[in-house]
């Protein structure tokens, strides 16, 4: 079930950004029935037992920050290597989507990466 706050947030975005965010959102929640969405840190975010992914929508393109929870700092950098990830610290990484074409190209890899990420939390 979609979170009404997330639906309203995405609906208010400009059309190009809205389309990209919605495609990424569908890919993430499609990984597992255990993934839930909500507004955390003023943007759409995703959780299982704890928050693990948060959109970053300031600046150019769309960025998704993967982290090891709102409270925990589980180091994942040494156990998960993937060319999509730009490591921001041992417990968080960023994936950047330049435009709609880039989103479409990265979605299959994103889904595999999300599945691996949540296994390690």
What's the helical proportion of residues?
25-40%
Supply the helix-strand structural class: alpha+beta
Using the coordinates above, name the CATH class: Alpha Beta
How many structural units, i.e. domains? Answer: 1
Q: Within the largest sheet, what's the order of strands?
A: 1-2-3-4-6-5
Name the shape in a single word: globular
Q: Helical stretch count?
A: 3
Short recap of the structure:
With 121 residues, the protein is of the alpha+beta class. The protein contains three helices and six strands.
Describe the protein.
With 121 residues, the protein is an alpha+beta fold. The protein has one domain (4-120): Aspartate Aminotransferase, domain 1. It has 3 helices and 6 strands. A 6-stranded antiparallel β-sheet has the order 1-2-3-4-6-5. The protein is globular and about 40 Å long. The mean pLDDT is 91.
Secondary-structure topology with pairs:
Layout: H1 4-11, H2 15-29, E1 36-40, E2 43-47, E3 51-56, E4 62-67, E5 86-89, E6 92-97, H3 100-120
Antiparallel strand pairs: 1-2, 2-3, 3-4, 4-6, 5-6
Helix pairs in contact: 2-3
Key features?
3 helices, alpha+beta, Aspartate Aminotransferase, domain 1, 121 residues, globular
């Amino acid at each position: 079930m979609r979170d009404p706050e997330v639906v309203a947030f995405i609906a208010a975005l400009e059309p190009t950004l809205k389309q990209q965010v919605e495609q990424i959102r569908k890919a993430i929640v499609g990984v597992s029935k255990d993934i839930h969405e909500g507004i955390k840190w003023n943007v759409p975010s995703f959780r299982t037992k704890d928050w693990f992914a948060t959109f970053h929508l300031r600046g150019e393109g769309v960025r998704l920050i993967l982290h090891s929870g709102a409270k925990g700092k589980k180091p994942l950098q040494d156990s998960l290597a993937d060319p999509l990830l730009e490591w921001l610290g041992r417990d968080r990484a960023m994936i950047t989507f330049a435009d709609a074409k880039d989103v479409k190209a990265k979605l299959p890899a994103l889904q595999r990466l999300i599945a691996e990420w949540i296994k390690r939390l």
